[in-house]
Amino acid sequence: MIEVQQLSGGYPDTPVIQNFNVSLERGEFFAMLGPNGSGKTTLFHLLSGRLSKTSGEVLIAGTPLEKMRKLDKAKKMAVLSQEVQVSFDYTVEEVVRLGRYPHQNGFLKLLSAEDQRVIDEVLNLTRTEQFRNTRFRMISGGEKQRVLLAKALAQEPEILLLDEPTNHLDIKHTFELLDLLKTWQVERGVTVFAILHDLNVASLYADRVALLHEGRFQDVGSVDVLRDEEQLQHVYEVNVRTQPHPDVAKPQLLMVPKPEDAPLEPDDFRRQYSIEQTTGHVHVTFNAPVRAASSSVTGAGIDWLKHFCNFHVEKHYNSESPAEDVEMWMNELDIPPAQAAGMMTAVRTEDAVFVEDERHGIRLLAAVTAGVGNAVDITAQDTNVENFEVGTINMMLFLDAHLTDGALINGIASMTEAKTKALHDQGVKDGATQTTATGTSTDSVLLAATQRGEATPYAGSGTAVGRAIGEVVYEAVCEALKKYDEREGRA
Ligand SMILES: Nc1ncnc2c1ncn2[C@@H]1O[C@H](COP(=O)(O)OP(=O)(O)OP(=O)(O)O)[C@@H](O)[C@H]1O
């Protein structure tokens, strides 16, 4: 649909774009990204014909751009640029009507019923209908942007060239406009070429992205281009991290600011937290957020948290909304739920086991409660997970270490292996099958790290961290199981 061959152009003393090649398929959404001054607008103007090239070729559906008649070009291509060019005191509808100009016939260029239908449709789609009779100059920057898009859509073009189309728009209108563009692109096969500054928006909407750097394409490809942290750091000169969007299979970027705080003293891990233990709960509070991965009732997943709670519930506790209950109990204790992970157990919280130690060079704190009334062999076919009794193993482990997300997951696996070994060595059986239990039916696990020092990518048994995790979890679970037996009068 658009073929750019060996294109060069720019300004008299600044060539900017040199020997540029790119090919855009019909119906694709192509986003051009790049830092300030990288040449995006210059390339945009060369493609729209506003700037004359010095050499090379821009072909629109096979025809050289400069050979196209103005009206034919306007039928093929609509341009939404940063400069608002509305010279007269038009109403919004009159501005949008200008978009129909290439389609109007005859000397008088009268508005047909079809023209009016299209105008009404685009006013509706861009949610600018209510300003129809308002003077264009009287509406806000974001509203103007939507009206100018309506004008561009009214052209019913095959190609949309958009320079920062979401400029001035709030989040709601940004996403409404991009959803609208995506629908036009998909349903009508419109080719969209857009300059975007927001890399996360580009990742969500573009089929292909190009990273422009000093007048050249640094990279062109699928949105996976935005997974290359090193390249982004080189082009934008900022510390950037990329991560998957939680709901959509696209990367999203996070900027990393310069560290604010001075590094903590190496020996102060013990001073970083406090422990509260009552008959109702265990509450570990850290002075600063630690990075935690957990399967707890609230605060599950990976997050930065400061509060870690394990609440005691009655043996026959049964609730439709345990997460709401946990948050209510947190609120009663003035613990902000957004900064907390919460577990629950029918085991007495006075029997919680704490281990504060240094293992394999890593300072750590473990907090475990264990009950095995619901002990289950996860590999057994006939186990009875419905048979609820007191029994859950809740494990929290805090490390003075720096674990990547992968290492946190690896560490959770190490914790689970150590727990299962403890159950085996303590002779805990699945009540239904009498085979060795691998856990209970409602266990929770949490692993958190202060993120100080060098990042560790692994936390399996082949690493010092993994071995520290294995040792301390095994000991704490064995100790908690003994306390449970004593409490149940079995010891
Ligand atoms: N009218 C002009 N005359 C001379 N040089 C110009 C002109 N406009 C832009 N330039 C130069 O061309 C280079 C590329 O500018 P361009 O506007 O294409 O960058 P951009 O990627 O669109 O930047 P931004 O993100 O800031 O809009 C810059 O070095 C700029 O100073």
Automatic annotation (TrEMBL):
InterPro entries: AAA+_ATPase, ABC_transporter-like_ATP-bd, ABC_transporter-like_CS, AdoCbi_amidolase, P-loop_NTPase. One of its GO terms (molecular function) is ATP hydrolysis activity. Keywords: ATP-binding, Nucleotide-binding, Translocase, Transport. Residues 2-239 form the ABC transporter domain. Coiled coil: none annotated. This is Iron complex transport system ATP-binding protein. Pfam families: ABC_tran (PF00005), CbiZ (PF01955).
